Amino acid sequence: MKRKSSNSDIRSGRRAFLRGLGKAVASVSALMIGGAGLIGKKGTSHAAVVKHEIPPIPNYDWSQHDWGYGIDATRCIGCLRCVEACKAENGVVPTAHHFRTWVERYVWLEGEERPLVDSHSDPGNIAASGSQKEYRFDNRYQGKKIDKAFFVPKICNHCRHPSCVQVCPTGATFKTEDGAVLIDHDYCIGCQYCVQACPYGARFFDYERQVTEKCTWCYHRITKGLKPACVEVCPVGARIFGDMNNEAVYPFMTGLVAGAFSVSSMYHVFGMENFKPVARFALLTALCFMLFVPMTLLLHLGQPQRAFNAMITPHLTSAFAAFGYFAAFYAILLILEVWFAFRVDNVIRARNSTGFARTFYRAITLWSDDTSEKAQSYDHKWMLTLAIVGIPAAHGLHGYVGFVFGSLKSREWWGSD
Question: Which of 82, 204, 215, 341 would disulfide-bridge 230, Cβ 3.0–4.6 Å?
């Protein structure tokens, strides 16, 4: 894409602006003096207010959409295709220091408490790529002992209540009804106040055009039914984009359930001590998300008040009806494992409590009072058994939901553009 202006054009434009400024000040002063007499006579004045409006987009009604963007950092491989695609699609300044989206690398070396962080704009990575138009991460950590490392894609968060919109003096930065935060460069005066106000560092100043730039979710694409360029090219699905008014949430919820349960099982089944501090918390997280899965499913149904008919009067040949029983089985399994994981803690709380709190904790433990090593060993055996069954059950549930969701959506997607 060719850039529309050069530095010489900007300088000449500034001179023309300054020449006209004096004339404008004189004209406005004359109007204000003349208008003062009219205001004095009528007691009222009429101020012209310029309202910012986006031009209508054919076959698109932004009030019918609520766009959402998600990033799964555990999937990102740091290939930087997203960065290159964004630059090519949106004509971003062709240097290694201006991006609408970027990727950071976090590396913990053995024995270090803080991570080492770099991005593709780091001089070492620029040298490794050999160009400011192509982006790669170098091999600076080759041969070193690494405790853990991962990549984190970064992008404008398109906040619900964006500070950049609040501080913009002209309304050039605005939030659309469908959730995107955009910049109208015809209104932007280049003050860079929004760059300073953004808490995520997601904005930069284009010194060639003298305006602010940021991610727009490729608004010219999503209003035509396409995905943002970075989402389109990601080879591992680390970037997710969709309409939250249309997309079913329950496949993502069961994915969170499976992931949290797997983290817990790393300690309870495989004995990995690194996961011990978060093992029980992860188990509780899995249960909490599992309890919300039915709610997200109900939101997807056209007649949610009839949902339990699928279990009370089921048609057993239906995959959707079987999902209800599968989900109920896994929920019971989760509740049992959480009960064994926290039984001893709740027994101790019951002993140290009085009144209603004591009765409450006693009821939770089913009036159990044994905290001996033998009883705790019994708890651990049951937790191990439930976890071994729960690992394939959790991932099977997520896969099953994906199958059901795909069955529901395949005809709609296949028949769409």
Answer: 82
Quick check: 170 and 212 in contact, CB under 8 A?
A: no
The pLDDT confidence band at residue 365, using thresholds 50, 70 and 90, is very high
Give the Cα separation of 417 and 410 in Å (integer): 13
Specify the amino acid at residue 4. Answer: K
User: Is the pLDDT assigned to residue 44 strictly greater than 70?
Assistant: no
pLDDT per residue over 374-390, tens digit each? 999 999 999 999 999 99
pLDDT tens-place string over residues 312-337 = 877 778 877 788 888 889 999 999 99
3-state secondary structure the chain: CCCCCCHHHHHHHHHHHHHHHHHHHHHHHHHHHHHHHHHHHHCCCCCCCCCCCCCCCCCCCHHHCCEEEEECCCCCCCCCHHHHHHHHHHCCCCCCCCCCEEEEEEEEECCCCCCEEEECCCHHHHHHHCCCCCCCCCCCCCCCCEEEEEEEEEECCCCCCCHHHHHCCCCCEEECCCCCEEECCCCCCCCCHHHHHCCCCCCEEECCCCEEECCCCCHHHHCCCCCCHHHHHCCCCCEEEEECCCCCCHHHHHHHHHHHHHHHHHHHCCCCHHHHHHHHHHHHHHHHHHHHHHHHHHHHCCCHHHCCHHHHCCCCCCHHHHHHHHHHHHHHHHHHHHHHHHHHHHHHHHHCCCHHHHHHHHHHCCCCCCCCHHHHHHHHHHHHHHHHHHHHHHHHHHHHHHHHHHHHHHHHHHCCC
Distances in Å between the Cα of 134 and the Cα atoms of 1, 91, 283 are 16, 14, 43
pLDDT value at 167 more than 90: yes
Read off the pLDDT of each residue in 158-175 and give the average, rounded to a whole number. Answer: 93
Q: Which two tokens stand for residue 269?
A: 């089944």
Kindly report the number of other CB atoms within 10 A of residue 271's CB atom: 10
Phi, psi of 240 (to 5 degrees): -125, 135
Taking the CA atoms of residue 97, residue 98, residue 104 and residue 105 in that order, the dihedral angle to the nearest 10 degrees is -30
CB 27 within 8 A of CB 193: no
